């Protein structure tokens, strides 16, 4: 009986996740692209100096969003740069609406 409950719960969670993904896609595919640049670095697990320099340079002229999991190194980024957690809902939103994506 516990196995049946576990399988039913797993199926319910999968259906909910598929529904949410579909909902997010529909919501953000309808919107126009925004004039911002999203920068990802090694799936958010590493910040190297090249990515930081590129982000700081681009931030002089454009709105830049930096996705990372390494927040301790973010103090070297320009204060105008928006920092989001890699893989978060905000990260996905910015990815879906960005005109430019830089992936290292």
Condensed summary:
It contains three helices and four strands, in the order H-E-H-E-E-H-E. It has 104 residues and is of the alpha/beta class. The mean pLDDT is 82.
SSE layout:
Blueprint: H1 2-29, E1 34-40, H2 49-58, E2 63-68, E3 82-85, H3 89-97, E4 98-103
Parallel strand pairs: 1-2, 1-4, 2-3
Account of the 3D structure:
The chain is an alpha/beta fold. 45% of the residues lie in helices and 22% in strands. It contains 3 helices and 4 strands; from the N terminus they run αβαββαβ. The protein has helices at 2-29, 49-58, 89-97; strands at 34-40, 63-68, 82-85, 98-103. The protein has a 4-stranded parallel beta sheet, with helices on both faces. The longest helix is centred in the N-terminal third of the chain and has 28 residues, at 2-29. It is elongated, with a radius of gyration of 17 Å. The relative contact order is 0.20. The mean pLDDT is 82.
Keywords:
alpha/beta; 4 strands; 22% strand; elongated
Query: Mean pLDDT, nearest integer?
Result: 82
Helix content: 40-55%
Taking pLDDT < 50 over at least 5 consecutive residues as the criterion, the unreliable ranges are: none
Percentage of residues in strands: 15-25%
Strand order of the largest sheet: 3-2-1-4
Total of helices = 3
Main structural class? alpha/beta
> Largest sheet, described in full?
4 strands, parallel
Taking Cα atoms only, what radius of gyration do you get, to the nearest Å?
Answer: 17 Å
Order of helices and strands: HEHEEHE
Number of DSSP-assigned strands? 4
Q: Which word captures the global form?
A: elongated
Terminal residue distance: 48 Å
């Amino acid at each position: 009986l516990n196995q049946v409950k576990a399988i039913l719960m797993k199926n319910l969670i999968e259906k909910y996740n598929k529904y949410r993904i579909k909902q997010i896609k529909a919501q953000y595919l309808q919107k126009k692209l925004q004039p911002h640049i999203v920068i990802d670095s090694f799936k958010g697990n590493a910040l190297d100096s090249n990515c930081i320099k590129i982000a700081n340079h681009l931030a002089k002229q454009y709105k830049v969003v930096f996705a990372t999991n390494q927040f301790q190194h973010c103090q070297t980024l320009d204060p105008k740069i928006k920092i989001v957690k890699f893989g978060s809902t905000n990260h996905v939103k910015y990815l879906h609406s960005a005109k430019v994506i830089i992936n290292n």
